[in-house]
Structure to design on (90 residues):
């Protein structure tokens, strides 16, 4: 937890916010040696790849095999093949 003065915050707002974004640590704001506020980091964000990265560890081993079998079912494949067309085919 870091403490800064209100004056320091006003003079360096951009740098303080950049630090808050990169180092998720609570920042206490003081004026006249009294705590007047706190800056808290927002919720973390992640890409879809990062979110799915550990998915294989949480699923049972059979889940991957079942998903693969479901994705190869012919009824869905035939339906997609019948509905899709080549956009460059004239």
């Amino acid at each position: 937890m870091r403490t800064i003065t209100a004056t320091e915050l006003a003079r360096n707002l951009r740098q303080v916010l950049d630090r808050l974004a990169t180092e998720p640590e609570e920042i206490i704001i003081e004026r006249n040696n009294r705590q007047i506020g706190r800056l808290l980091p927002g919720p973390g964000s992640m890409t879809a790849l990062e979110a799915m990265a550990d998915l294989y560890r949480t699923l049972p081993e059979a889940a991957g095999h079942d998903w693969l079998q479901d994705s190869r079912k012919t009824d869905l494949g035939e339906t997609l093949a019948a509905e899709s067309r080549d956009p460059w085919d004239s």
Remarks:
- Residues 61-71 form the longest helix (11 residues).
- The mean pLDDT is 81.
- The chain has two domains: 2-39, 48-83.
